[in-house]
Amino acid sequence: MPATAPPAALFDLPEPSERTTFGRSSGMTVLSYGLGADSTAILIEFLDHPERYGLATDLSDLIVIHAVTGDEWPDTLDYVDRLVLPRLRRAGVRLVQVARAGRQDADGVVVLDDSRSPRRIFARGPWCLSDELREAGTVPQIANGRRTCSIRFKGWCLDQWTEAEFGGASYRRVIGYHYGELKRAEKDSRIQREHNRAAGRTICEPFYPLILARQDRADVERYVLERLGEPVKKSYCAQCPFSGVCASREAHEARLRDHPHIAADVMRMEHVAMALNERSSLYGTDSLYRRLTEDGRNHPVLSAFEESLDQAPYAVYEVRRIYYAARTPDCRTHHGRSCRSPKWWCRQPRTEQCRADHPTGEDFEPWCPGHRECRGPAKKGPAWRSVRTVWEGDRRTAEQLVRQFAARHGLALERGETSGIQRAHYLTADGGFPTASAFAVAAPAGVRDKQRKHFEEAWTRHTGDVGTRWNPLRPLPAPEPPRPTGGKPLIRRAKTIGGVTLIA
Known about the structure:
Number of strands: 16
Shape: globular
Distance between the termini: 62 Å
Oligomer: single chain
Helix content: 25-40%
Strand order of the largest sheet: 8-7-1-2-3-4-14
């Protein structure tokens, strides 16, 4: 009989004998499972052909770990529950599900499930990304190109668990970046090398099977469809600002139409964020609300959003901001990371005329006394924000109170250019820095009152005003002092009573 050809593998990698070193003293491979097509494709291949990827035949050296953000799409959870988990159960592969246990890192990580026979993917943990965003009155943030929400609710949880699990032993970390995400993989590898160098040891070695096999997104989706019989939708949080990247705009809006209650929640989150800051729309200069109004098919979603606003408890917020001037390059050069004795040129850049007329030496700071022709325009730097809840009740009354406040003080109601939300501004920022602004606005309740410790002193110093124009409903919550972690990961396990998992 002719020899039977071996089944085709998704990843054309060298035989195990040719790949002898991974630098993983624990001998373990950890697959970061994001529930989407990329990591699902890798998982299927690992289950079907473990020996091809340096894994034990019984997969005893494979751990699949999933970080629960609390905002995954229901159809993604259903897909994995029906089509992926049965395969994990048959193979006896260990699946660990983790989530943040609270606001602070010292609250640690809770293990929702750690099983070789998992029955479901958890929809949420004790502290979800959406909980944090609603309390802060904002949308997901990107700082210096870093997806801070992903770092806090995914990467940090995974790192804490693996540190507790492996201690000083290294492991192989598998991430499902496909061939079109080379830059993301390069950045991830660079960051991991830096962590390894700082630790003085190899914490882990990243491994990107899809990239090594030159498999792009279309290849992966086709493979998963063939193996599981159903197309897989992209896994991402419903409020993700990269939804145009995670899925096409058409696919994303179709998903919102399939889940109008989720769409209404995300739109309300954006509405509150824009009420407090007009520039806090989900897509930078564009809003989810405006995008959805362009397509008549989204009318049921928009109706659900309006109904959610009408039914939601409302509040009147008094929002004050102080806008400081940014530090200049001269300041950073001469004063380093912290400027404790600022000069005029720390906030106002020196003009070219100043540099020509008042040169500096190599060993001393700029000495120019700051003539008018020497001072360039300051740029916007950090902003301090105070949010105080001054009334709570229904939507209609809240909006009426803002209008009455404007009329009583002779203020013109200003409507947001993108949001259309009306605000009663009693102080408007001028063109220079530092400057300040203040307004009252009606929006759904739930934003936590917050301001810096010395905000009131700074506010009076910059504006001459003392305190708020309204009486806040309640005192500011006592600031939570940072709680040290002791340098060790804090891992807690969720309790299960009568088959019910208690995660709060």
